[in-house]
Amino acid sequence: MGKITVETCEIEGLKVITPAVYGDERGYFVETYHYNDYKEAGIDQVFVQDNQSSSIKNVLRGLHFQIHFPQDKLVRVITGEVFDVAVDLRPGSATYGKWHGVILSAENKKQFFVPKNFAHGFLVLSDYAEFAYKCTDFYHPNDEGGIRFDDPKIGIKWPIAPGTELIMSDKDKKWGGIEEYTESKKNG
After folding, report:
1. Out of 64, 100, 120, 181, which one is annotated catalytic?
2. Cα 90–113–55 angle (5° rounding)?
3. Sign of CA dihedral 100, 63, 20, 34
4. Per-residue pLDDT averaged across 68-83, rounded?
5. Active site residue 64
6. How far is residue 80's CA from residue 50's CA, in Å, rounded to a whole number?
């Protein structure tokens, strides 16, 4: 029990994990995390904090990162469906500023491993979603950074229908773009 399938993408370090699901007429069983299986798949992190949030349709959270205390994250959806995105912010990376998105849902049970120094965010596609994630460092409230979700330099193709009114925090509406972030790192 507990084996996982791991898919990589064009951005090194990002991984989409599909766990084995065992079901019958009663329902299903899935092992959502087993250290040895993840270590074998190249995810040898020690997670120190679990978080969970709920959101309604058209909520967009992100793109967030921790500035001085970066976190690896293992994210999944418990209820509903989201479009989850990671943007590479690793200094010197060949894929700096590139993004990758994946549909995470209660139905597909996929997980997304997002390494340190990536910005992360998601858009809720279902009427309601519960989102859960493991982190390798504790949350530091005064250490949060962000990048605009719609920065044309990044060009994320969010599945947003024309005329959709997004629901976002005031903070997420005010982030600058990747050029501002890059400039601040040079001068920082």
Report:
1. 64
2. 105
3. positive
4. 97
5. yes
6. 19
